[in-house]
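Homework help board

Subject: predicted structure for assignment chain

Our instructor gave us this sequence and asked us to write out the predicted structure in token form, then describe one feature. I got the tokens but I'm not sure how to describe them. Can anyone check?
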Amino acid sequence: MKTVLFITDLHVGSHVPEFAGVYERAAAHHWRVIELELSRSVRPLHELVAQWKPAGCILEGCTVKAADAKRAFKGIPVVNLDPDAKTSATAPYVVESDPRTIADWAAKELLRTKPASCAYFGWCTKTVWSAERGLIFKKAVQRESNLPFADFKDGWEIGDTLGVQKKLAKFLIPLPKPIGIFAVNDYAAVQVAEACRQSGLECPSDFTLVGVDNEEMHCECADPTITSIELDFHEAGRLAADLLAELMENPKLPPKHLKFGPVRLVRRQSTRALRLNDPRITRAVEKIRRDATAGLTAANVLAELPFSRRVAEKRFRAATGKTILEEIQDVRFEKICELLATDIPIGHIAGRCGMQSDSFLKRFFKARTGMTLREWRNRQTR
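My token output:
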């Protein structure tokens, strides 16, 4: 069995699903996959590679000096997964995110909220991937509208959250409201949300916001909770593994640069414009979004609203255009469709969607779509 190294800085964030994707494909290629975290190792790269004598390597995101790479990987096939811009431009075998699709999704979601202006908040240092997302976002906005556009060009430091939030506030306050803001990733989006909060800007009347990566700890803990574009990091790992297998089979393989894109947009409070701006109803909608698939009932939601049932339902419909039960069912239906797009057994879906039983799930789904769960799944996978 051949050994393949998955080399990364640290096993966190997007690295986790990427490694899972590589590991999944390793079984098909009959590999043993070893993960090396450079930040946790006291040994230089060439010693680590020599220790394992790999048949191939996937270098994930980390920056390795050209001289170190040449010494460590001499004669070993290497695929770069989500590398820095310099490596992306020079390496022959690369798998990286698609900035065009990401930025187009962000523009579509923000323009849906009918902003009076748009803005882009990029990464703390000048990087090609951040600049590309911003440029494509600007073009997508201007293609669909004549809105004023602003690009935050000041540098900022990750450790200086107060400093960047002050700069952001100064940048955002003069712009026409509401501002549709695209942040390069979820960490950056949190800085935007906090800068707006400290400046007295309210969502959605003054701003709407989209991030990237769907890092739940960032998105769910922010105020407002942040709509985010989730990238298909799992697919990225699979693509990298298959490209490495191809390269190991054919060392003279022509250079290949493969792209992976978003898998879904998770809409949260930062782009959910209700018809009636009622903070209590907003909190109820957020509760439904988080808990509908865990068995939440309309009675649970009503119990937390300081109104009679009749008044609560009236206010909820005025704000959302739906009853509380309809909102719960919509969230569950979305989750069902999401699970049907995976290989999870159909018999396991009801329990993950807050449904009472398999039979109830089947009746609910057939009434909505006119199809059985299996028919829907088969149609999506053709």
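Reply (TA_rk): Your tokens look well-formed. For the description, you could write something like this. The mean pLDDT is 90. That's the kind of observation they're looking for.
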